Amino acid sequence: MTKQYPHSVHELYDKYSGMLFGYIYEIVKDTRLAEQHLISFYSNLKEYLDEINADGANTWCQLQRLAKRHLSASFINTTAQTESELVTNYTGNKCLGMMTSEQRHVFCNIYYHGKTVAELAYSLNKPEDIVRKHLKDAFTILKQRA
Amino acid sequence: MNIEEYIESGILEAYVLGVATDAEARELLQLKAQYPQLRYALKELELDMEHIAGEMAIAPPPGTWLKIEESINGLIAMPEVAPQKYKEYNGNGHYKAPADNKEKYIEVESSTDYMRIHKQWKWIFAGVFVLGKIFLACAIYFYLENRQAQQQVQELKSELNHYQAKP
Questions:
Q1: What is this structure's pTM?
Q2: Cα B138 from Cα B41, distance rounded (Å)
């Protein structure tokens, strides 16, 4: 497996494993389980190296999308979370604490649980434009904080 | 189209997170080719996302890479399964065995001297060991008790004999 790309998987691990582990941990909320998913994700990464190394593609964004797909395929709970669940699950994250409840709801359900704008618009009973605006504002807060 | 409004609408964020609809993604890619500021905004957003993820990063437990390497090497070392040989149908509901009939049986006897057992046996063995120790301790205790009692009986007997011997 590593013959064809002797360094790529390791390089991707060195650079992005912490970010991916943090991302997966926020979804599964269990260190051991997150580690298992990280191992399984990197073990099968070779298949997607062409996709990741494609011209113009941001590596982190590609990895995050693949991780989301990997977790969905592993039957990780991807159902939309309610506000109370979000408050319970993401209280440790200072960045999320700076958002309004709607911004947090939209951001977490899209970022961590892969919900679409249409799905959230339906569940919140709001137009899709408003949901996208919440997402944009959530990113602005995170950007300022970062 | 007002491209600034488009950038501010949140479509870029949805696209980067992979939740934009096909129509939205198509439109964005078309506009990206037309408007350099959109291209720039998209690039910047991707970098922002990377930066944000970096802020939320958690170091994986030590030894994780070794486990990944082991898993990858395991995948490499796995031998390819040979395809099943073609068997000719003889018309009587049976298939003719191939001419090369050497590997007719599958070897089921393991060549290794070790055996693998379920992890639960660890507790059963531990329980048996502890019970063994308890029985051993009880046996020693009762043996000593019995010896002491016999000594006392002997002493009492000798005392009794001594008194009986006296007039």
A1: 0.61
A2: 81
